[in-house]
TrEMBL record:
Gene Ontology molecular function: glycosyltransferase activity
Annotated organism of origin: Nocardia lasii
Family per similarity comment: Belongs to the glycosyltransferase 87 family.
Record-annotated membrane-spanning stretches: 20-43, 74-91, 98-115, 121-138, 145-166, 172-195, 202-220, 258-279, 286-304, 362-380
Catalytic activity, EC: 2.4.-.-
Sequence segments annotated as region (Disordered): 410-434
Domain of life where this protein originates: Bacteria
The keyword Nucleotide-binding is annotated on this UniProt entry: no
EC supergroup of this enzyme: transferase
InterPro entries tied to this protein: GT87
Annotated compartments: Cell membrane
Name the UniProt record assigns to this protein: Glycosyltransferase family 87 protein
């Protein structure tokens, strides 16, 4: 059956033409990123400190010995993360790194499939190769594999969490989230999503799993307390290198602290209003609400706290996929200009215009995250203001052309003709997106 699908055929529709054209590009992009770029590696090696720490843990030696005054990658996982990831040091470094690359690539591919299923697309749809090509051509997937970090596994955990949350399997959703938090707290903000949906059982396992793993790892570690006394204070500090958060670029460009704080407060207000509008008017549209709310929440968690790195953007793929939904907030060009800023693998460093190129390269991620949040705020705000002006807030804030129906208060009754018959109603609704 598999080989039957691979048999060359002549496309009969435009959709088939595009699908047949995209699949070779997508597959070759995956192979290039996994077997060429990732295996080649780069000067930045996120895996070496993880491997070294795991090796020290397995041999009963101190783990938290990094010199935080250097700009080299440091080992920052907690005792629970050390326990989970320690098996990577059972074999020699190079083979271990290759297997970890394969693990992340497999996790990303499974997450790709889960995104398709979340939005009711199949492998045979045009969305499948388009999404696969977009994911593996992005900076976030490319550098996750090249630098060899754990973000691919975190993306899989996010998709498992979203699927299980929508299926109301709260305890298992908490397990998926808890395992990710045990390694890195990147997805911890998603606990707010469970809270606003009233799915409180998620907290039992989401908090219980990392606490339980920490309790197991504590007596097995030589210096577990140093994670809380040394590593966590470092994580709370903002640095002016490899940091696309507002405070990172503010420090790099020497902005006064009051201005950096003001920008953060304003952006926090933008996020708060967007989240409130989503909860108030969209929480019953579960797929749109869960994917958009989580995307806004995670983008804010990259931009506003002390540290945000470009490849964190991998967690925003579910948000970007909402563009296929009719009421998506991403169906406009400013949104995709923002997405280009933090997803593109292009480099903007210029030999001819060095200052301009450096600024474009260093600021594009920060501006991209910020612009995305502003776009969501403006789209939702415009819908709200229009609905309030037209007196239809009680029916939601989506305009009539988007929902395909008019609220009762706005229904227009046709005047009867002289023969007392009624003019036939014309259905102007847009067909539902498949």
């Amino acid at each position: 059956m598999l080989f039957r699908q691979l048999e060359p055929r002549t496309a009969r529709t435009t959709a088939e033409v595009i699908t047949f054209a995209l699949w070779p590009f997508a597959v070759m992009m995956v192979l290039n990123r996994v077997f060429i770029k990732a295996i080649n590696g780069f000067i930045t090696d996120d895996y070496r400190p993880v491997y070294n720490a795991s090796f020290e843990f397995l041999n009963g030696r101190p783990v938290y010995t990094a010199d935080f005054s250097s700009v080299d990658p440091h080992y920052l996982y907690g005792p629970s993360g050390t326990l989970l990831i320690a098996p990577v040091a059972i074999i020699e470094y190079e083979l271990s790194r290759w297997l970890f690359i394969a693990l992340n690539a497999a996790a990303i591919l499974l997450a790709w499939y889960l995104i398709l299923r979340l939005f009711k697309f199949g492998i045979g749809s045009i969305a499948a190769p388009a999404l696969l090509l977009a994911m593996f051509s992005s900076e976030t997937v490319t550098n996750t594999l090249v630098f060899t970090n754990v973000n691919g596994c975190l993306l899989l955990a996010e998709l498992l969490f979203l699927h299980l949350l929508l299926a109301r399997r709260d305890l298992w959703a908490g397990v998926a989230l808890g395992l990710s938090i045990a390694v890195k707290p990147t997805l911890a903000p998603l606990l707010l999503l469970a809270a606003v949906r009233g799915q409180w059982k998620v907290f039992i396992t989401a908090c219980g799993v990392p606490v339980g793993l920490t309790a197991i790892a504590w007596p097995l570690s030589k210096d577990p307390e140093k994670f809380f006394t040394v590593v966590m204070p470092y994580l709370m500090e903002s640095r002016d290198y490899f940091n696309s958060a507002i405070v990172g670029n503010g420090a790099y460009y020497g902005l006064p602290e009051w201005l950096t704080l003001l920008v953060r407060v304003v952006m926090a207000g933008v996020v708060a209003v967007s989240l409130w509008l989503l909860w108030r008017y969209y929480r019953h549209d579960e797929l749109f609400f869960v994917t958009t709310f989580s995307g806004v929440l995670l983008t804010a968690s990259f931009l506003l706290p002390s540290l945000g790195q470009m490849y964190y953007s991998m967690m925003l793929f579910p948000l970007l996929m909402t563009v296929v939904l009719r009421n998506s907030v991403l169906r406009n060009w400013p949104a995709w200009l923002a997405i280009f800023g933090f997803m593109s693998y292009d480099k903007w460093l210029s030999d001819r215009w060095q200052g301009v190129g450096r600024n474009l390269e260093y600021l594009r991620v920060t501006f991209g995250w910020g612009l995305l949040l502003i776009v969501v705020f403006c789209v939702l705000g415009e819908r709200y203001l229009s609905a309030r002006r037209e007196g239809r807030l009680q029916f939601g804030i989506d305009p009539a052309w988007m929902t395909g129906k008019n609220p009762p208060s706005l229904a227009v009754t046709a005047a009867p003709r002289h023969d007392d018959s009624v003019a036939p109603e014309v259905d102007t609704r847009e067909p539902a997106l498949k």
